[in-house]
Structures are given as structure tokens and as C-alpha cells.
Write a structure and sequence with these properties.
CATH architecture: Alpha-Beta Complex
Strand content: 15-25%
CATH class: Alpha Beta
Number of helices: 6
Helix content: 25-40%
Number of strands: 9
Oligomer: single chain
CATH superfamily: Spore Coat Polysaccharide Biosynthesis Protein SpsA, Chain A
Largest sheet: 5 strands, mixed
CATH topology: Spore Coat Polysaccharide Biosynthesis Protein SpsA, Chain A
Radius of gyration: 15 Å
Distance between the termini: 14 Å
Structural class: alpha/beta
Length: 170
Amino acid sequence: MGRDKCLLEIDGVACIQRVAMALAEAGLEPIRISVSSPEHMEKYGSVIDPSLQVEWVIDSVPNAGPIEAILEALTDPFCNDPLQIAPVDVPWLEMSTLLELESRIGDNEVAIPISSGVLHPLLSLVRPMVANSVGSDRRPLKEQFSEISHVLVEVDERSVKNINSPEDLD
């Protein structure tokens, strides 16, 4: 994108606020936001509604990537069971998508959203026990999650659309 996706505005609302609102509307507060530095907490916090319950977590290894941030969250003793993962670059995420994952996870370790045949593992609902399966594995999450107890949940394509280039904003 050439700029910070968290602060990218769509219809006047920053992406990080849009995702946080979808999580809050689905009853998933407190919302745990992983950042690489305290400066990011201040910058992102300035565009998030202060009425939302947000827990800021600084990555133990800055810029290590999403798998490491997910593992840190899953091994935290205060981790929700299950834990909803949500990247900042899905600004059209809807509460209904999150509620559908929750209703479908059952006894599975992971509920993976799928749309038009494409898996969206960074929007999965996962149980903390998943940390034992993916801890030292560096393959893509879609491969790792597909090898453990999971359910695929068909979701609205618009809700899981992520932005990687300016063209994706159309």
C-alpha cells in the first residue's frame, strides 16, 4: 500500500477502527491489539473509539510477523478460548462473519473462513491448544490449520476482502 494500513481511512474511518468495531459488535471485547512499539499504541489509539475495551500488547519480537503474534496471544494465560484473530486489512469485516465462526467452531480447534474457495486463516477463530501444533512450524497458516481439527465456514466475500494495493479499495 505504501502506507500504514491501520490508519488508512475508508469512508472517513481508519481500518483499525473499522475492524475493532466489528469485533466489539460481535461481543469480542476486550480487543487485544498487538503492536511492534509503544509509539504504535499511541498512534493507533488516537483513531480508536475510546469507549472500546482495548488491551495493547507489544510484540516480544518486533516485526516478527503474524504467526508469532498469534502464538503470543494463544499462550497468554488470559487468552480467550476461542480466540478470534483479525488482521487490520479487512476493513469490511462484519459482525455476522465473526458470529458465524463462533457458532460453527463446535469442538474443533479452528474455524476457518472461506469465500469463493479461498481460505482466510488470518481471520480464523482458534483455540489456545493450536499453539502446540503451530509453535515451531513456519509453513503458511492455511496449511497448518488444515491439518488439525477444523471447520470451514463459508462467509460473505466482501466481509473478508483485504486491502493490499490501492486498487483493492474499489
